[in-house]
Automatic annotation (TrEMBL), chain A:
Belongs to the MinE family. The keyword Protein biosynthesis does not apply. This is Cell division topological specificity factor. Signal peptide: none annotated. One of its GO terms (biological process) is regulation of division septum assembly. Keywords: Cell cycle, Cell division. The keyword Cell division applies. Prevents the cell division inhibition by proteins MinC and MinD at internal division sites while permitting inhibition at polar sites. This ensures cell division at the proper site by restricting the formation of a division septum at the midpoint of the long axis of the cell. It comes from the Bacteria.
From TrEMBL, chain B:
Interacts with MinC and FtsZ. Transmembrane segments: none annotated. It comes from Sinorhizobium saheli. This is Septum site-determining protein MinD. Gene3D superfamilies: P-loop containing nucleotide triphosphate hydrolases.
Length: 87, 271
């Protein structure tokens, strides 16, 4: 086992360096708007709640900050019984 | 003209207090009148690292609140007569520091010293922001490790925003002090290299202090590492860094990198 590890040795420092570069690029850009995710979550929910009933505990917001693109994933469970509200 | 230096990092445990003591002593060894000021109110340790813990009578908070004069609170080092310590309070919390009080103390210190070295507490709250508030120069202490680098980046941002100099539209001179560096592990690819950290933080390097048993030994004895054994590798790194702080230009060497063939083999195995 250890001999395999010796030959397929992968260094961890380049990974550390890359993770830091991506993270800090985002953190430097977003000074003062650190609660952006929370703001987006509230506003998106408000829009959806206008039309359907939403259980606030069944909402998940995920953010993935990549090197070039950031994705925001909002997953809202709408129960079948909720019904669409009258416009 | 007095120079105010803040030794800061954001993250705890990276070597701020060790570096403050070592740099302060190194500057005092150059015959320049130096005071090291502990801003870590409630968790003071600079007195202990300097070996003056039994001589503390008054502290920074006493001076700020007018209970003691500055001259009464300052402790002269027993080994170097150009070196002084202004301890922090152990019984109060960091709210006992007021911006006006700190300003008064700093103005008074500037009249008497060549160097005022402020040892910042960890974090980014009151103690840390007040420690950096009056700085002309910042020494950002960083370990070659992801959380330390991230926190240093944050602190660099604060130095550019929350200091008196920044508010006047001037710049705080910022220097990177890389501590606990292990050249063998970096060469093997298991630790961020000097160049990696420099590229990410993009501030000039003032020194590289190697990971070394001499640092713990010195703090066990209550002596700044530059005084405990001035020929040890970390002492040399701090003495050189102090010379660079004072404006000298000297090439930066990476401690522990110039190993012979045998040294390489055994060094790798040992680590």
């Amino acid at each position: 086992m250890s001999i395999f590890r010796f030959f397929s040795k992968q260094s961890s420092a380049p990974t550390a360096r890359e993770r830091l570069q991506v993270l800090l690029a985002h953190e430097r850009a977003s000074v003062g708007q650190s609660d952006l995710v929370a703001v987006l979550r509230e506003e998106i929910l408000a829009v959806i709640a206008k039309h359907v009933q939403v259980d606030r505990d069944r909402v998940s917001v995920k953010m993935d900050r990549g090197e070039h693109v950031t994705t925001l994933e909002v997953d809202i469970e709408i129960p079948i019984t909720a019904g669409v509200r009258a416009a | 003209m007095a120079k105010v230096v803040v030794v800061t990092s954001g993250k705890g445990g990276v070597g701020k207090t060790t570096s403050t003591a070592a740099l302060g002593a190194a500057l005092a060894q150059r015959n320049e009148k130096t005071v090291v000021v502990d801003f870590d109110v409630g968790l003071r340790n600079l007195d202990l690292v300097m070996g003056a813990e039994r001589r503390v009578v008054y502290d920074l908070v006493n001076v700020i609140q007018g209970d003691a004069k500055l001259t009464q609170a300052m402790i002269r080092d027993k080994r170097l007569e150009t070196l002084f310590l202004l301890p922090a309070s152990q019984t109060r919390d960091k709210d006992a520091l007021t911006p006006e009080g700190v300003e008064r103390v700093m103005d008074e210190l500037k009249k008497h010293f060549d160097w005022i070295i402020c040892d910042s507490p960890a974090g980014i709250e009151r103690g840390a922001t007040l420690a950096m508030r009056h700085a002309d120069v910042a020494v950002v202490v960083t370990n070659p490790e992801v959380s330390s680098v991230r926190d240093s980046d944050r602190i660099i941002g604060l130095l550019d925003a929350k200091t008196e100099r920044a508010e006047r539209g001037e710049r705080v001179e910022k220097h990177l002090l890389l501590t606990r560096y292990d050249a063998v592990r970096a060469e093997r690819g298991d630790m961020l290299k000097v160049d990696d950290v420099l590229e990410i933080l993009s501030i000039p390097l003032i020194g590289i202090v190697p990971e070394s048993a001499d640092v713990l030994k010195a703090s066990n004895l209550g002596a700044p590492v530059t005084l405990a054994d001035s020929r040890s590798a970390p002492a040399i790194a701090y003495l050189d860094a102090a010379r660079r702080l004072a404006g000298e230009t000297l090439p930066i060497t990476i401690p522990g990198e110039k190993r012979g063939f045998l040294g390489k083999i055994f060094g790798r195995r040992a680590a």
